[in-house]
Design brief:
The chain has a single domain, classed as Rossmann fold (3-Layer(aba) Sandwich), CATH 3.40.50. Helices cover 39% and strands 18% of the residues. An eight-stranded mixed sheet has the order 1-2-4-3-5-6-7-8, with helices on both faces. Strand 6, helix 9 and strand 7 form a beta-alpha-beta unit. Helix 7 crosses helix 8. The chain is globular, with a radius of gyration of 18 Å. This is Dienelactone hydrolase family protein. It holds the Pfam family DLH. InterPro entries: AB_hydrolase_fold, Dienelactn_hydro, Dienelactone_hydrolase-like.
Length: 292
């Protein structure tokens, strides 16, 4: 999970808010690989994504989200959990790219209990003292139980959509704070979630009874845990614990420490590393192709 130590690590890389711009990285994300055509001979033109701003009911109110899906056909559903700065344009771009691979993607606003998205337009706004202070109480509400409840509501909504193929398993991806949310999601609806990818997720292993590693046995998903090298340096035992619990649960889990720092997969993060981000993206697509 992003915290003061993460901010310090980004600063160690020589970045500051004046120097850091995202235009190049955002352009790189938008330059997607060719679309994977859906079955049945549908053309690429028909896969052009539709983006809808929606709200869906939860036990705690109304969640705002962005639903991006192909124009025709039905596809496996994927839930995208943003990082600590929340749902914003960079995640819409990721969802659009994933949609072009043949998935129906919902980008959720985890902070919906307190504010509508975007809470921040770009990551650098969260990095300010005011930005981190703003999200502190919002993050307190994001308990494992709350996320699991939200996941059930999200899946219930997705399964009513014509563009979602309910006969195929669903997936979930999460970044930073959203990394552990992928495990909570898989544990909340094990009959639906078959693939989960955590990118530099924080808090995957802890002493909490609801720690994600302890919940793996309650899931039926295959996993990708893409770990940042500086997160691994801070907690080198976490990857071993994830391996052990995945084996005990008899589930498939690809666990790798990447040669990149926390936040490297998100294009508006100062740690963004295009080469390693593309490699992690490719491993996620492989997981989805094998399981969904």
């Amino acid at each position: 999970m992003c915290d003061e130590q993460d901010v310090a690590r980004w600063a160690e890389g020589g970045w500051n808010r004046r120097q850091f711009t995202v235009s190049g990285a955002m352009a790189a994300l938008a330059a997607c690989s060719p679309a994977r055509k859906p079955e049945g001979g549908v053309t690429e033109a028909q896969v052009t994504p539709i983006s809808e701003d929606i709200t869906l009911p939860t036990t705690d109110g109304e969640m705002d989200a962005v639903f991006i899906h192909p124009t025709v056909g039905d596809y496996p559903a994927v839930i995208l959990w943003p990082d600590v700065a929340g749902s914003r344009e960079v995640f819409r771009l990721m969802a659009r790219r994933l949609t072009m691979e043949g998935y129906a993607v919902l980008v959720v606003n985890p902070y919906y209990r307190d504010a509508k998205a975007p809470v921040f337009a770009k990551f650098s706004e969260w990095m300010t003292p005011a930005g981190r202070d703003r999200t502190a109480p919002m993050r307190d509400a994001l308990t494992p139980e709350a996320i699991m409840s939200d996941a059930k509501a999200v899946i219930s909504w997705l399964d009513t959509q014509d563009s979602v193929d309910t006969m195929k398993g669903g997936g979930t991806i999460g970044f930073c704070m959203g990394g552990p949310f992928t495990v909570f999601t898989a544990a909340a609806v094990p009959g639906r979630i078959r693939a989960a990818a955590s990118f530099h997720g924080g808090g995957l292993v802890s002493d909490d009874p609801m720690s994600p590693h302890r919940l793996l046995e309650k899931t039926q998903a295959g996993y990708l845990f893409a770990i940042a090298r500086n997160d691994d340096k801070r907690d080198p035992a976490a990857k071993t614990t994830l391996h052990e619990y995945a084996e005990q649960a008899a589930i498939s889990a690809e666990i790798e420490v990447y040669p990149a720092d926390h936040g490297w997969t998100v294009a508006d993060s100062p740690s963004y590393d295009k080469v390693q981000a593309e490699r992690a993206w490719g491993r996620m697509l492989s997981l989805f192709e094998e399981t969904l």
